[in-house]
Structures are given as structure tokens and as C-alpha cells.
Design the sequence.
């Protein structure tokens, strides 16, 4: 399949790249959300602070899952390389 028709997860490498990009976006969203939380806290808007804290908790969970996914994909790439070298 040529690059024009490649799907995002045609290979372990493309899946790894996607997860890496998603991880970067999650980290950026966490920083932005923390800023909103800091401003809401300074304004005394406790309900908003609590809601933003829940959002930060969920983004942190997602970030942890992305890190684990990257490690798993790295393991799979390594295993694939070892298997193909053993065959060759």
C-alpha cells in the first residue's frame, strides 16, 4: 500500500507516532487546564476549580495510559525485530 492510501495504524510505527502526538496534546491540554484552574481559584470560583480538578485527574489518567501504550508499542517493535532477525 502506498503512502497516499496508508491508514493511521497500518504499522506499529504509525500507531506509535499517533500515540506520541496524542501524548503531546494531552500534556498541552493539562497545562492549559491548570492555568484555568489557577485563575478560577484566584477568583474564588470553587465549583469551577473542582470541575477543572476532575478534568485534570482524567487527563492525567489518559497521559498515564498513553505512556503505557508507547512502552507496549516499543516492546512490540522490539519483538518484531527479534523475530524477523531470527527468521532471516
Sequence:
Amino acid at each position: 500500500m502506498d503512502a497516499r492510501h496508508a491508514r493511521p495504524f497500518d504499522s506499529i510505527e504509525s500507531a506509535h507516532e499517533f500515540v506520541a502526538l496524542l501524548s503531546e496534546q494531552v500534556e498541552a491540554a493539562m497545562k492549559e487546564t491548570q492555568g484555568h484552574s489557577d485563575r478560577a481559584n484566584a477568583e474564588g470560583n470553587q465549583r469551577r476549580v473542582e470541575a477543572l480538578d476532575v478534568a485534570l485527574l482524567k487527563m492525567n489518567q489518559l497521559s498515564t495510559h498513553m505512556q503505557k501504550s508507547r512502552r507496549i508499542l516499543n516492546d512490540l517493535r522490539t519483538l518484531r525485530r527479534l523475530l524477523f532477525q531470527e527468521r532471516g
Remarks:
- The radius of gyration is 19 Å.
- The first helix runs from residue 12 to 42.
- The mean pLDDT is 90.
- Residues 30 and 78 are 31 Å apart (CA to CA).
